[in-house]
Specification:
Layout (H helix, E strand, L loop, with lengths): L16 H27 L4 H28 L1 H19 L3 H23 L13 H4 L3
Helix pairs in contact: 1-2, 2-3, 3-4
Length: 141
């Protein structure tokens, strides 16, 4: 297995938050990969010392994963909203009595999210103006 070249993605300037968010997503993937690799090593041995060390390292990798996810929320506010919305959706699916009810609960939450988004992006109507305000319409006549 080859090592990651840390200079492949570098450019002769500072990264934007969008570029850094992409890099952090790669770090998230690397942490998940490391957790799975170390867990496979634990499964492959009966050596108690090795298992304890690997377990300790897995716990640290999980902490790194959580820290990267928190950083990702800072760098990508849209993703932060998606993460925030995921909790209620997952709970609704898990707590539903049947698979059909789980789909209905998920769909209802999606529709609710869509309605909120539509309301937030709908043009503002000003009484008496008859249309959405524009820069020109707000000028004094």
């Amino acid at each position: 297995m080859g090592l990651t070249d840390p200079f492949v993605g570098l450019v002769p300037r500072k990264m934007t938050d969008t570029e850094l968010a992409r890099a952090i997503r790669q770090n998230v993937a690397a942490e998940v990969d490391a957790i799975n690799l170390y867990a496979a090593h634990m499964d492959a041995t009966d050596n108690e010392s090795a298992r304890r060390i690997l377990s300790h390292i897995i716990d640290e990798e999980k902490e790194h994963l959580a820290e990267f996810l928190e950083l990702l929320k800072i760098l990508d506010p849209t993703q932060a909203l998606d993460i925030e919305k995921a909790g209620p959706k997952v709970r609704a699916i898990v707590e539903a009595p049947t698979a059909e009810a789980a789909h209905e609960a998920h769909d209802a939450l999606e529709a609710s999210d869509d309605a909120v988004e539509a309301a937030e992006t709908a043009p503002v109507q000003i009484p008496g103006l008859g249309k959405s305000p524009t820069v020109g319409s707000l000028r004094k006549q």
